[in-house]
Amino acid sequence: MKHCLITRIKKIISILQTSNEAQFRILATKFNEAVEVILELSDKVSKLEKAVYKTHSQNKKENSFFNYISIKMLFILIFTLFFNFRNALFPY
């Protein structure tokens, strides 16, 4: 009777160990899949950040070029107006 009980307990422990190992393997597989997805998403986000930064840099360069032209034109306009105003008030 005692021997039969010990055998049953060993059998149940063996089944539980097998079940736990299978559950652990499933859990490990799901974890690895989740890590792969996270790595892929991180890579995609990194590429998007680079693209946005590159576009932003190009727009900033273009805007600074147009600002330079605008400042230059404004300076020429003010200089021309000042020169004409001076000639009108104080002719040679």
Fold and architecture overview:
- This protein is mainly alpha-helical and 92 residues long.
- The protein has 1 helix and no strands.
- The chain has one helix at 2-89.
- The longest helix is centred in the middle third of the chain and has 88 residues, at 2-89.
- It is rod-shaped, with a radius of gyration of 39 Å.
- The termini are far apart.
- The model has no long low-confidence stretch (mean pLDDT 79).
Features:
92 residues; mainly alpha
Portion of residues in beta strands equals under 5%
H and E string: H
Helix-residue proportion: over 70%
Number of helices: 1
Biggest β-sheet strands, sense, barrel: none
Total DSSP E strands: 0
Low-pLDDT ranges: none
The rough form would be described as rod-shaped
Radius of gyration: 39 Å
The helix/strand class is mainly alpha
What's a quick, concise take on this entry?
Helices cover 96% and strands 0% of the residues.
Topology summary:
Layout: H1 2-89
